[in-house]
Amino acid sequence: MNARVWKKVATSTAFYSRQQLLHVISQPRSTPVQSAIPTCLHSWHLFSHRSVQQQHHRQKSSIATDLYSVQQQQLQHSKGVTTGINGKPLYKPIAFYSLIPIPRERVIALRDIIETRLSELDVVGRIYLAPEEGIGGINCQMAVPLTHMAQVKKFFNSLHDDFGPISFTEGLEELPEPCFRKLRVMIKKNLVGVKESIHASDLVDPSTHHLDPVDWHQQLCEQADKAFLVDMRNHYEYDMGHFEHAAKLDVDTFREGLDELQNMIKGQPDKTLYMYCTGGIRCDVTASYLRKNGIKDFKMLKGGITAYGNYMKSLSNDGNLGNDKLAATTKTTTTEARSLFRGKNFSFDDRRGERITSDVLTQCYQCGNPCDTLHNCANTRCHLLFVQCESCKQAMNSTCSDTCNDVLSGKKTWKMGYNYHRQIRPKTTSSSCSH
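^ Rhodanese domain-containing protein, sequence as received from the core. Prediction below:
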């Protein structure tokens, strides 16, 4: 394809991902989604079978280079460097939340203030704001250039009158590319979805029992499998990684989990409840729910799994236990042996998780081999979130089933409607993948 034609195609398809274009091009011409892409793409055969094979080959050959780049970037960071080997800035995931009543008019103003300032600092991510009528405040997940980290923290701390004191939780690693594709600052009714009405003022309670990672680790070590420990996340998050002996809420959404938790508590009436989530916000909302139902004997991990992972990493970096309380609970000398969390901490960004330990707790959906790499099905109308190894990814063209593979290749037409639960809960069995 000559340069002039390619420029025309690229301009016409600027808002579509490569995989979306591939999917649409391979559809029969009669499908409704076809109208979303300029007709010129079909005559030019932008994504021919040969080009897809070449693309897969290039992806394979770049793996070694990518691994080397990550290693070099980690080495540079240890020397205080904030840019990668290609001169581009390194990014760091960072998150925080504040559950606090904010008037609706101020929420609208804050949306514009935050979006403007973060755009100036090249920050990408998802920021949710909610007014005081519901579960109000702010919930932030961002990828921040290391060169702008101090400015971002200073900016949010300057909004103390709105959000109060902020406790930032940073990701475990620096990234060569941001883990979000763009910046989105949105207003929601509630920061966390619940069935019953909870006001923001209900969430501000000094009696909330937070445990820092050190105390959390110590108490769980002392109780071992006798602890009444519950993972407040969804089923697919738990499957990727969880604390030892933690009970699983086999649910698709947080609002469903509150009902299941109530049933669990009825079966353990005399035990202290220990609960945790990714960063802490779901546990804080759960605490309000429990108090409203007369339950007061519970404790929560402050900062969630991310804070615990950072604590474990700090012990590894300094080469010793680093805390007398922790030393009293364990005789091991390696971070992974000490960590009570196993596997990956699921993240709602392009990474799909941060590794805490080397344990792999899940299997490839198609071949059954140990794997904990999550993908979305390349058939964008399916979009199933599932575990897939690299071999099956290549053999199945990044799809979850023979049906979706046929849809992607144009042999079949997708006829199912949208269903959120189907997107996050794979069937028990899948099409086999031989490799």
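The first strand starts at residue 91 and ends at 99.
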